[in-house]
Design goal:
5% helix, 600 residues, mainly beta, elongated, 4 domains, Immunoglobulin-like
Length: 600
């Protein structure tokens, strides 16, 4: 059979029906890159070339397989191979990681029948044989509508949805007698189906009455075809993937009881759950707080950035967004402790999670306080390195940045080096005049506290003390504060009022992020909970019930809404990249420990 391809290639030293690698410059061909071109169309995608048992094999980043080819991921229990389906029975693809361990790649061999490739600089060029779209059939079903696309061979495809419009792009030409429109057939959910030939590609646009996620199945017998079902009751299949040793990726729809306002409404409600299960006892895995401005910047902890950017900057493998922050000031308002260093404290009694290198964890409400003693007078401090401002005296250390700039009007700024007050400065308007924070000390900022000038004169010796309730928090080097606390010992303990959240916060519906422990010691769940297809967003009570149903024993709510982001291996798992909001901090997963950082 004669094969035609989408571009004339450089000479290939193999039979035309084999998957081969052609080098545009054999003597200097790279073994990795970040661009993949499929039939001349460039994609952002990482790839590797590896020599295994004397043979060169190509690996591509896993999300490129699913997003660029239409490969469907299936449950997998082994981290060195991934179960997949692509116009065939389930098959396995070998797994590889790059030298950083941050990106996961899958072997192209199971899909590359009759493909040709070439490496050109940073780009891997893939060319698939010309494919013919022989027919598009549409039918009404009791549950909705079905489209069937008949092909003469398996071929790449991708799908996207915007509102009530589904766009399916198939790497195939339309047959000469294929109708270009299917509007004449009435559907239950479909308003129109339009076929738009685009050279070697064909776009099928499906307009529906409601926002519906399509269920797409690929079949190979008797000929390759795609079956697209459109139904309101479609529930995406669950997925559990052993992504790396000690790290599992989980996606599922979770159903919980619901008390409807109307008797005819459903008595259960469904939510979409995306999670990472992290085994803290796995020696190659570490979990750390990260923030948008790392060490070395004069701005310290000032700044916001999207979670993917923070992950890249920290060289982590994945992360979930962390605690609360002031979006205007771009500073944290909750506790952050990393490697025994207090990056920021908390002024309120709120839920927090702490953990250590042994895989031990603690989730509880944290009461963290500081006090200083000057001339036998004890002075309680309001907070540490925080944008949460209130009447009293707060402390700011070099972790805040190289200097302190007033957050409120008429502040008194007191500079302490070692254990002695060395200067006092009277602040003016907000944001004007920076006072250097000494590397061997800190500054105290008095707000609406005129007595501070006399209590802490220049030359006064001061001593500081920290206290934790529960005291066990003091033994953990890493900590993130957020709240409210959701579960404790398997029981619901949600109480937003007790943690000084605004009235109604518990019942607000929004995308949720949470962190939880399970009955398996050392296992952490990093979880996002969102509305299921055609559903509603969860409130905190529903989030707690979902977490309990997936095995959480103790659980803490993290910042949610537009902040809710779960990231792994270069991919956002729970939402579109266009929907990501910048945040201040996150809880990151490292395949190897990050560099040791000195204590202040």
């Amino acid at each position: 059979m004669k094969m035609t391809y989408r571009k004339t290639l450089i000479p290939i030293l193999a039979a035309c029906c084999q998957f081969v690698i052609a080098d545009s410059a054999p003597s200097a061909t790279p073994n990795s890159g970040t661009v993949i071109q499929l039939n001349g169309q460039p994609w952002s995608g990482r790839w590797l070339r590896k020599v295994e048992q004397g043979q060169q094999n190509l690996y591509v980043q896993e999300d490129w397989l699913t997003g660029g080819l239409g490969v469907q991921m299936l449950d997998s229990e082994k981290s060195d191979r991934q179960r997949l389906r692509w116009f065939s029975s389930p098959t396995f693809s070998r797994v590889a990681f790059d030298s950083t361990g941050r990106f996961r790649y899958l072997d192209l061999t199971p899909f590359a029948d009759q493909w040709r490739t070439e490496i050109s600089g940073n780009a891997l060029n893939i060319y698939t044989p010309d494919t013919l779209m022989q027919a598009v059939r549409r039918s009404k079903q009791p549950w909705g509508d079905r489209l069937v696309i008949d092909l003469n061979r398996r071929t790449p495809w991708r799908v996207s949805r915007q509102g009530n419009v589904i766009n399916l792009i198939v790497s195939a030409e339309v047959a000469s007698d294929l109708p270009i429109g299917l509007n004449s057939i009435a559907g239950n959910l479909v308003k129109s189906v339009t076929i738009q030939p685009q050279g070697k590609l064909t776009q099928i646009q499906i307009q529906t009455n409601d926002s519906i996620n399509p269920a797409i199945e690929m079949l190979s017998s008797p000929t390759p075809r795609m079956v697209i079902d459109l139904r309101r009751d479609y529930v995406p299949p669950s997925l559990t993937v052993q992504w790396a040793d000690g790290l599992r990726r989980i996606e599922k729809i979770v159903e919980i009881p619901h008390k409807p306002k109307n008797p005819q409404d459903p008595k259960t409600i469904k939510f979409s759950v995306t999670a990472l299960e992290v085994d803290l006892k796995q020696p190659r895995l570490k979990v750390r707080p990260i923030w948008s401005n790392p060490d070395g910047s004069p701005n310290g902890i000032l700044g916001l950035s999207p979670v993917p950017q923070m992950v890249e900057q920290a060289q982590a493998v994945g992360a979930i967004n962390g605690g609360f922050f002031n979006r205007i000031r771009q500073l944290p308002v909750g506790a952050i402790r990393e490697g025994n260093r207090w990056i920021a404290g908390t002024a309120l009694v709120r839920g927090a999670i702490a953990w250590n290198e042994k895989g031990e964890t603690l989730i509880d409400r944290l009461n963290f306080t500081e006090e200083i003693t000057a001339n036998q007078t004890k002075i309680a401090l309001t907070n540490l390195n925080s944008a949460y401002v209130q009447r009293g005296i707060a402390r700011y250390t070099p972790n805040w940045g190289s200097g302190y700039t007033p957050l409120t009007e008429n502040e008194l700024i007191i500079v302490v080096r070692g254990d002695r007050v060395v200067a006092q400065y009277q602040g003016g308007v907000v944001g004007v005049g920076q006072v250097t924070i000494p590397s061997d000390g800190y500054v105290l900022v008095a707000r609406q506290s005129p007595e501070a000038a006399k209590q802490l004169p220049v030359g006064m010796t001061v001593k500081g003390r920290q206290a934790f309730v529960p005291e066990k928090f003091a033994n953990f080097p890493n900590l993130i504060g957020a709240g409210p606390l959701l579960l404790k010992n398997g029981n619901l303990v949600l109480d937003g009022k007790a943690e000084n959240f605004q009235a109604g916060f518990d019942t607000q519906a929004a995308d949720r992020s949470a962190i939880a422990t399970t009955k398996d010691k050392g296992k952490l769940l990093l979880v996002t909970v969102q509305e299921a297809p055609n559903g509603v967003a969860p409130n905190l009570l529903q989030t707690a019930e979902v977490l309990k149903k997936i095995g959480a024993v103790e659980a803490l709510n993290l910042d949610g809404g537009s902040s809710s982001t779960l990231f792994l291996g270069g991919n956002i798992l729970n939402r579109s990249i266009t929907e990501i909001a910048p945040v201040h901090n996150a809880i990151a997963i490292f395949i190897t420990p990050p560099p040791t950082k000195p204590e202040f």
